[in-house]
Specification:
Strand content: 15-25%
């Protein structure tokens, strides 16, 4: 991070007072167009720029960083948001956080870090801000992208001033899968006199007008839990109710004094799923108490669902600041009824019901090859390429990490896409790709609790290994024997995929060494070593004395 950086300027372009018909105006050209300047879009632009391509980035807002920006009237983080994956595993592979950064940085630190990355790699020149992509289609072997040019009016609302078009050889879609809020209408909601908002609108208890009130939060994902805790801590709310149909396991930020994501090692992840789940559930129950004790009553095993991370939820449940309730049955005036027959009076309701994938800007002739609206999933080989549309269109960040963060996954995807672009890479036969996609979906359905939250789940370590192997950047103990212990027993961070292959980074080895291996994993390794030595001795004894 390169110190404090001021807000980046926005390329508004020409802001004509009225929309202008493009008519026969020739589209602008570039090698590749990246849609979105969030973390996935920025790292994609950087990887494409590194291989010498002419890159254009279209961003709807006036700043980089995507959801990490605090915006009162738009998608983005809440005022109190911290990353829930540690700085060791949620960072750019060749641009780590400074050593002095906290383990779980605040969103303002995250924005500063992103701005430092943009400045270091001179990415700002690639971005056109206030461009809202409306249509992406294939034309004569190239891609045609149409976007509205926007500007903010005096009230802060965006209005269209004209349209632009761009003709490119390649497109990378990095708009993210947390775009369109999934909303529900509660039975009897029309009778409720208070506010009913989606969590995307919540930034702070005071600015949302919910301080010192009774609030119901629907959902038990990370956003729901963060909101419930914030309502208690900063909103001084009299009572907060958290309603969940499926229940939840709660993960702490730290386990045995270390960030919990540092335990996501290759050795742990290679343990049979049922055994790994049993071990994790036992440890978490010993440390925090079984979730049934706190009324969370999960309907799934711990590793069958997206992790909900909170260091303070259990504390507030213990103090009865937050009360766990089952699924909603309906609303009657200010009274909310639940499926167990209980009820409560609330002043406001926040729907933390997640998001839907939205690829509606794709041409109707191609969108059905990629996106299943009803199932909230995408049909992509290795979560990047459409078997039908080929290697010139990439989807970056359309994965949901089952542990850790999406950044390392997006970056590895982007490096692969960059190699495909410059080397004219080809995809396997369509039938082979579709068979693999179907197999992955079947595995996902068997592994995870049935929910629209779990349609694009991948484990970051195994997934990045798989993608990195496509361009010879997968780290192995044979290539890096001095890192063998860390590669097996540590999480190692994103720099491990910069140890070799195209785009290798000279500082990767030192950065991998900086990522802590937990004391628990060191004991685990020692026990395995002793068990191996004992087994070898026993076999030697039997061989020499019994045969």
């Amino acid at each position: 991070m390169e110190g404090d950086t001021p807000p980046l300027p926005a390329d508004m372009g020409d802001t004509a007072p009225l929309p202008v018909d493009m008519g026969d105006t020739a589209p602008m050209t570039a090698d590749v167009c990246v849609l979105g300047a969030g973390i996935s879009g920025l790292v994609t632009a950087k990887c494409l720029q590194d291989v010498g391509l002419d890159v254009l980035v279209l961003e709807r807002s006036g700043d980089v960083g995507g959801l990490w920006n605090l915006r009162q009237n738009c998608h983005g983080v809440m005022a109190k948001t911290h990353i829930n994956v540690s700085k060791y595993n949620y960072c750019f592979s060749d641009y780590p956080f400074p050593d002095a950064a906290s383990d779980f940085p605040h969103h303002s630190e995250m924005c500063q870090y992103i701005h430092g990355y943009v400045n270091k790699n001179n990415l700002l020149k690639l971005v056109k801000f206030y461009r809202s992509v409306k249509h992406v289609s294939k034309k004569d072997g190239d891609w045609l992208v149409r976007a509205d040019v926007l500007r903010e009016d005096d009230s802060g609302c965006l209005e269209t001033v004209r349209e632009e078009s761009y003709r490119v050889k390649f497109v990378a879609i990095a708009t993210g899968h947390h775009v369109t809020p999934r909303t529900i209408t509660l039975p009897g909601q029309e009778t409720f006199p208070g506010k009913v908002i989606h969590s995307v609108e919540y930034k702070h208890a005071v600015s949302s007008g919910m301080e010192e009130s009774k609030v119901l939060v629907v959902g038990v994902g990370n956003s729901a839990v963060d909101i419930a805790v914030d309502l208690v801590n900063t909103g001084r709310c009299e009572r907060v109710y958290l309603s969940t149909r499926s229940g939840a396991w709660i993960w702490p930020n730290y386990l045995f004094g270390q960030p919990i994501d540092l335990y996501a090692s290759r050795l742990n992840l290679n343990v049979p799923w049922w055994l790994n789940t049993a071990m994790v559930e036992t440890i978490i129950s010993l440390v925090m108490g079984h979730p049934n004790k706190w009324g969370l009553n999960p309907k799934m095993r711990m590793l069958q669902t997206q992790a909900t991370v909170s260091p303070t939820l259990i504390h507030h449940i213990q103090r009865e600041d937050i009360v766990i309730k089952p699924g909603l049955d309906g609303v009657k005036g200010s009274e909310v009824h639940f499926t167990d027959g209980s009820q409560c009076q609330v002043d406001n309701i926040i729907l933390s019901t997640g998001y839907k994938i939205d690829l509606s800007f794709l041409d109707p002739q191609i969108v059905d090859d990629v996106w299943d609206r009803e199932a909230n999933t995408v049909n992509l080989w290795k979560s990047v390429f459409s078997p039908v549309l080929g290697p010139t269109l990439a989807f970056i960040g359309y994965v949901q990490p089952s542990s850790g963060g999406v950044l390392s996954m997006s970056e590895t995807q982007a490096r692969w896409f960059a190699e495909m672009c410059i080397n004219g890479g080809q995809l396997p036969p369509l039938h082979n790709m579709q068979t693999e996609i179907d197999r992955e979906k079947e595995i996902c359905e068997k592994r995870y609790y049935k929910s629209q939250r779990h349609t694009i789940q991948q484990d970051p370590v195994f997934y990045c290994d798989d993608i990195a192997s496509q361009f010879n950047a997968k780290p192995t103990v044979w290539k890096h024997p001095s890192l063998a212990f860390r590669l097996m027993f540590g999480s190692c961070g994103p720099a491990q995929w910069r140890l070799s292959g195209p785009g290798a980074w000279q500082g990767a080895y030192q950065q991998v060494v900086k990522v802590p291996v937990t004391g628990f994993m060191k004991i685990y390794a020692a026990v395995l070593l002793m068990a191996t030595c004992f087994t070898a001795y026993l076999l030697y004894y039997v061989f020499n004395n019994m045969l």
